Amino acid sequence: MTSVAPLALEEFRLIRELILKYCGVVLTDDQRGYVERRLRDRLAFLSLSDFRAYYRYLRFDPAGPQEIEDAAESITTHETYFFREEYQLRAFRDEVLGALYDARRGARRLALWSAGCSTGEEPYTLAMLLLEAGIPRGWDVRIFGSDLSRRVIAHARRGIYGPSSFRACPDRYRSQYFRPTSDGQHEVSREVRALCHFGQLNLVDAARVALIGKLDVIFCRNVLIYLEPTARRAVVDQFYRRLSPGGVLLLGHSESLLSMTTAFEPVVLSSDLVYRRSAQQVESLPALPESTVEAARASAEGDPARGGR
Ligand SMILES: C[S@@+](CC[C@H](N)C(=O)[O-])C[C@H]1O[C@@H](n2cnc3c(N)ncnc32)[C@H](O)[C@@H]1O
Known about the structure:
This protein is 42% helix and 17% strand. The protein has helices at 9-23, 32-45, 51-60, 64-75, 86-103, 121-133, 150-158, 171-177, 190-193, 206-209, 229-242, 290-299, and strands spanning 109-115, 140-147, 160-161, 178-180, 186-188, 196-200, 215-220, 243-251, 265-268, 273-276. The radius of gyration is 20 Å and the shape is globular. The structure holds S-adenosylmethionine.
C-alpha cells in the first residue's frame, strides 16, 4: 500500500478551491486534518503518494472530473435519519399540507423535493407523513430526492436501513412502513417507495436544477450551512424559481434566509418558520438563459425531474 505524505497548507488550499467551485462547499483552514483523513483512501486507491499529485490528477487527468465528485462525496457530511427535526415535520403535516391540497385541488397534483436528501431518510419520512395524512384519491403526488453524491442516491434507491437511521423514528412507523430483512435491517415498503423518485443533482448546477418541474414544497435541511454564501444565495434563488406561487421552502433548524433574500414571505407556524413564494408574485427573479438550460438538457442523466427511481 502506498504511504501518503501529509497534506500541506498550500495543497489544501488548492484542493479546497476545486471543491468550492464544483459544489459550493466551503472548507476552513482548521478542517485541513479532517480533509487529509477523508482523502487518504482516495490517494491510496489511485496509488498516489502525495496531495500535490492528487491535485494535478483532479485538474488535468481525463478522470479528474469524476474524481472531484468522489472527493466531494468523501468530504461532505451525509448524516441523516428518519423523522429528523420532527417538530418541523409535524408542523408541515398539520399546518401546511392541508392548505396546499386546497390550493392545488384544480390540478390534483403535488410535487415535493428533498434537496440534499443523502441516503433517502428525509424523502421517505415525507412519504410516510403524506400516507398517514391520507392522499386524496386521484391525486398525483410525488417526492423527488436528490443529492450530490451518487453513492448516497444508490443507497436511497435500495431503501434498506440499519438501526441508526431509526434513532428518532417512532416505532409505529417502522412496523407499518418497513419490512425486516434477514440481516437485522429494515426495507422500506412498496407503498412508501412508490411515492419517491431519486436522482443525482448538484445544487450549484443551476442549468440542471432548472430542468426540474415546478414544485409545491422544497425541503432543503442541513445542506445550506455547508455552502459558501454566494453559492447558498444562488441555490436559494433557484429554489424560488422552481416553486409554484404559494409553494413553500423548509430549511434546517440552524438555517435561515435572513440577510440573504427578501423574495420569500416568512410564514410563522406554531413550532416553526417556513418560507413561502407569494401566491400573487409571478416572477421576481430573471429566468436562466435558454441556451444554458438547453446545454444542461442535453447532458442530463438520471434527473429527478425525469422520474428516475
Ligand atoms: C447533512 S446531509 C442532510 C441530509 C438531510 N437533508 C437531513 O437533513 O437529514 C447534507 C447532504 O447535502 C449534500 N450536498 C452538499 N452539497 C451539495 C450540493 N452542492 N448539491 C447537492 N447536494 C449537496 C451532501 O452530499 C449530503 O448528503
